Amino acid sequence: MKLEYVSRETLRGLYLVLMQELNEVGVSLSEEQLQLINLHLDYVLEANSSIRLTAIHDKDEALRLHVLDSLLALPEVLASPEGIMLDIGTGGGYPGYPLAIATGRPVDLLDSVKKKVNVIQAFVDKTHLGKPEVATLGERAEELALVRPGHYSTVLARAVSSLPALVELASPLLRDGGHLIAYKGAHDDVELERGIIVAELAGMRFLAMREYLLPDGGEKRTIYVLKRYADPSVNLPRRPGRAQRKPLA
């Protein structure tokens, strides 16, 4: 596809809601950052005709449900340790890509479907000069943990799996002091309790949660933050798929 930068007026119109919402959490983006985020969104929507990266086809909805939803975790990301981030189950690059652009932090975009990450890598190759560093990885989190244990300062996961499974997957990938930032829908007391039980086994502890509503649609969102503080008391990673099929809690 041909990547086209839009005019400043068009860009501001497209991202008016985005900027208003981000200002409320104390975040502002430059025009260059907005252009890259907009280019990426256009690319994902066009590439969606050949490989399913998202179920959303309308740009306004994609802006709200992908871009804005991703960026509303910026306070938690900025409070996490400096260093390389990992986005588990990235799909079309959300939330990892816009967060990398907004923070300047390097990110690895991980998805077990190699065709998806190959498409996103093609976009990165066209638009990036290495700052921030954005790389794609086509494998499972359990496989990556065997070759990059303790490599990441922050693990991101958005609408990927249950909180207990995410805690188990993130722990061996995080360095001590690193944070798991998990995006979920409406808060679930039982899921959180199970996540905290797994966290104790995985050398992690619960730090914080924040609930909010997305604009216009009012969808409920919850962000959970957990911190790795010690080695797990169980052997991790387990075989691929075990965290989802036979959770520790």
Describe the structure.
With 249 residues, this protein is of the alpha/beta class. It has a single domain (8-245), classed as Vaccinia Virus protein VP39 (Rossmann fold, 3-Layer(aba) Sandwich), CATH 3.40.50. The protein is built from 11 helices and 7 strands. The protein has helices spanning 8-14, 16-24, 31-47, 59-71, 74-79, 96-103, 114-127, 141-147, 163-170, 189-201, 242-245, and strands spanning 85-88, 107-110, 134-137, 152-158, 174-184, 204-213, 220-228. It starts with 7 loop residues before the first helix and ends with a helix.
Give the helices and strands, then pairings:
Blueprint: H1 8-14, H2 16-24, H3 31-47, H4 59-71, H5 74-79, E1 85-88, H6 96-103, E2 107-110, H7 114-127, E3 134-137, H8 141-147, E4 152-158, H9 163-170, E5 174-184, H10 189-201, E6 204-213, E7 220-228, H11 242-245
Parallel strand pairs: 1-2, 1-4, 2-3, 4-5
Antiparallel strand pairs: 5-7, 6-7
Helix pairs in contact: 2-4, 3-4, 3-6, 3-7, 9-10
Keywords:
20% strand; 11 helices; alpha/beta; 43% helix; 249 residues; 7-stranded mixed sheet; Rossmann fold; globular
Strand order, biggest sheet? Answer: 3-2-1-4-5-7-6
Q: Overall mean pLDDT score? A: 89
Structural domain count: 1
Give start-end ranges of low-pLDDT stretches.
Answer: none
CATH hierarchy, class: Alpha Beta
Strand content: 15-25%
Here the CATH topology equals Rossmann fold
Tell me the helix content: 40-55%
- What structural class should be given to the helix and strand makeup? alpha/beta
**Main sheet properties:** 7 strands, mixed
Element-level helix/strand string: HHHHHEHEHEHEHEHEEH
Number of strands: 7
Q: Compute the CA-based radius of gyration.
A: 17 Å
Please state the overall shape, judged from the principal axes of the Cα atoms.
Answer: globular
Number of H- or I-type helical stretches: 11
| Fourth-level CATH superfamily | Vaccinia Virus protein VP39
CATH architecture: 3-Layer(aba) Sandwich
Rounded to the nearest angstrom, the distance between the terminal CA atoms is 46 Å
